[in-house]
Design brief:
The complex is a heterodimer of chains A (about 500) and B (about 200). Chain A has helices at about 10-20, 25-40, 40-65, 70-85, 90-100, 105-115, 120-135, 220-230, 300; strands at about 160, 170, 175-180, 185-190, 205-210, 210-215, 250, 260-275, 285, 295, 305-320, 325-345, 350, 375-390, 390-400, 405-420, 420-425, 430-435, 440-455, 460-470, 480-495. By secondary structure, chain A is an alpha+beta fold. In chain A, strands 8, 11, 12, 13, 14, 15, 16, 17, 18, 19, 20 and 21 form a twelve-stranded antiparallel beta sheet that branches. Chain A has a three-stranded mixed beta sheet with strand order 5-6-7, with no helix packed on it. In chain A, strands 1-4 form a two-stranded antiparallel sheet. In chain A, helix 4 packs parallel to helix 7 and helix 7 packs across helix 8 (about 220-230). Chain B is an all-alpha fold and about 200 residues long. In chain B, about 65% of the residues lie in helices and about 0% in strands. In chain B, helix 7 packs across helix 9 and helix 8 (about 150-155) crosses helix 9 (about 160-180). Chain B is globular and about 55 Å long. In chain B, about 40% of the residues are buried. Classes of the chains: A alpha+beta (about 500), B mainly alpha (about 200).
Amino acid sequence: MKNPLDRDDFEIFLEEEVNQHRMYPSDHVWRNIQQEIHGYKKWPALTVITLFVISALVVGTVLIKPQHQTIISVADNAAQKTAEVADKQPIAENAQEHFSSVHITQQTIEKVTADIDITDNLQTAFTSYNNNIPQLLPADYSTVSSPDNFITPNIPAIPVNIASNTGRQAVNKDAGVNTPKNTAPVINWMNMIPNGNLTYDGLVALNIPGVTVKHRSASGSFMFSLFNKLQTSSLNLENNFSEPVHKSFSFKPKSRRFDFSFYATPSISYRKLTFNQGVPGNFYVSGIPYNADYKVDLSRAIRNKPAAGYEVGAALGYKLNDVLTLRGGFQFNMREYDIVAYKQNSDASSFSTFPGAIPGGVDVSNQTSTSINQGDKVVLPNRYYQIAMPLGIDVTGWKSGRLAWGVATSIQPTYIFDKDPFIITSDYKNYVDGSKLVRNWNVNAAFDTYISYATGQFKWQLGPQFRYQLLSTLSGNYPTREHLLDYGIKIGFVKSLP
Amino acid sequence: MGNHSYLMTEQSILAGCLQNDPVAQRELYTRYSPKMLSVCYRFAQNREDAEDMLQEGFIRVFTQIHTFQNKGAFEGWIRRIIVHTCINFLKKYKKFSESIDLGYASYLQVKEETVPSIMQAKQVVECIRLLPVGYKTVLNLYAIEGYNHKEIAEMLDIEESTSRSQYTRAKTMLEGILIKKRILDRPGHGELTWATAFKK
């Protein structure tokens, strides 16, 4: 570098003139720089959106998947069998005839169970079953043996005996009963206890000489379906047990632990402003004589108006037990609040927080007088579009029939993919465009309580929701912290997945 | 861009940039890009080239910010990087060597309407840009950026004497342009030329 003292007037003139010159680069310059340094930052948002769409499609496909044909056939059979049974005279003889001619093998059982499906026509099936079976039973058939831990049934035990032509002695160890040769082995239908959701919590024991089948928490439709098969068919039993063989296997009814929920929440958004650590709780306005300093209360300095927003989302739930359900999903949020400000003619990009305030001025009063210096009143909408991934837990607190009450809470990693905020300047006098200071990622927490009502396959929910943004909207370097609050009414439904 | 450059201190910007914080980088860019684009514009043939230089320069600033040792002005450090980027850009695209035709200067005709009269600073910049690339490069480096002829010769891969002669001719030519644009008074027509300019 040359000695500054060597500079002549011409050079000094040039430097002073030139250094006053400013040019503002195009937006794409910064975008290119950012991409060069940080890569394509838009991709995470697109990835999240893509995942959301794919998840929604998958869940939607699962929900509209046609039920297995046997579901319909069970319902149809229920009505048909009711009519058929009514025509049978005498019923007991018919039943005995059916059963005595049947030979049950393990293969037959597997075939039967393979066709079993848990159906939503369970109520019809079970009613039919319950009404007709007792009439089919011969009076001298053996009774049901019940495990000790069973709850007292409110539906009569259903004993069904099936004759065998094995000609051999078979021992039913589970029942503790020796079955003599040429007598009927016994299928002990254990008690089934309806729990309101048309599933039956209990031990289903199918005791046949040489084969013991047990399963807990089976479905009533399984019972009915199996009974139908045994009663009407064509089950070809080839009982050729040479000696008692005890073999156990389990039926695996489909789990209904998963559910799908969809919800929408119209909401009202507010915000809470606090000071960052190290910044005094009250702000003294400088630039005026000491004895005339005014103390600014931030809560008075800002004029906010809540505005409407909304939330739409979907989630998958996993039922841990009757009370607790884990949920995770995706949701879209739009939150907005309005700021009342006054536009200044001197700088189109900034807005005064107070009427009459000017940049660097001293007027911090909250009055609404209409002085000459006051600018036009404007309302600045602060709007954020977010995608969140709520992960939470749902607790059912009370349940009575179709009605239930519960609470739910979730933590929500959130990506703000579009924002249009005005933020208050550090001197609390003006608003400026603050989009560059807004965090792209944030964390929200939500809490809601609801009343639910079950209708058919759906459980409808309605209740208030509170959502709070845990991290400040603005980056940590900014002296003011802004936390958004949403109060909304959550409406949704839950559907159990097959 | 907004008037929020006061929101972060230079130290916090520097610290943020060292941690590759996008907010701090954006703040740095917002604060210095207008002045640096003006620097680039004086070296470049057109605005597009100037923005390319600016982009390349700021990428170097962000990637080499750890080499800043806090011994001088941060703005000066950024400016040196930008200037070197401009020189490299001109060399890379051969815009410097192709246009360093000293004879071109004698045929240069300056018309008053070629320079928009918006403000004097802009007028002066536009007048500088009317010079041939070789002239304005040397003039920019010597008169405005403060490099000496030895440094300029090394940067441009020319002789030191060439740098001196180009600067002398560039200065004469620019003076003529400024007089034609009535930014400066003609010698002998009133007050001292530079003093008149300063009064404006």
